[in-house]
Amino acid sequence: MMRIRLISLSAIAALALSTGIGLAGPGGAGHSHGAAEETAYGKPGDAKKPARLVQVTMSERDGKMAFIPDRIEVRRGEQIKLVMRNNGELDHELVLATLEENLKHAIEMQKNPDMEHDDPNAKRLMPKKTGEIVWQFTKVGEFDFSCLIPGHREAGMTGKIIVK
């Protein structure tokens, strides 16, 4: 009986770990997140504290999709508020993570294209809608933001955040 329980617990743990790449970031899509959860690219910001505003426009034109700007420079420790507007005719999202995490998550999005993000590091917007992400960049490096709706990243909807 004890062996069966151990195998069951192992199977549950393996299943939980194997599904982790489908998550948008700290805690994953649809889960609650603590304000202090730190990732390789920083942590959720505190909306009550000052933040530098960075406006990001999402659009598609002539078969290309884009974030404007597609490159953002940040100082280590700085908190920014990404104020996003979807000026396109399609849904778009912005998922902030490491490049490796976003590429892995893009594979999961191929399997689940209707997965929606409304996490501290990710926001999906319908056409003509706006949204915000408040984030504190605690580590130096290059990080990725992408629209992971299938085909959008491949059509050019990706950008870099450089933390110095």
TrEMBL record:
Pfam families given in the database record: Copper-bind
GO molecular function, one term: electron transfer activity
UniProt domain Blue (type 1) copper: residue ranges: 55-164
Signal peptide: 1-24
Region called Disordered, residue ranges: 26-48
Keywords assigned: Copper, Metal-binding, Signal
Protein name, UniProt field: Copper resistance protein
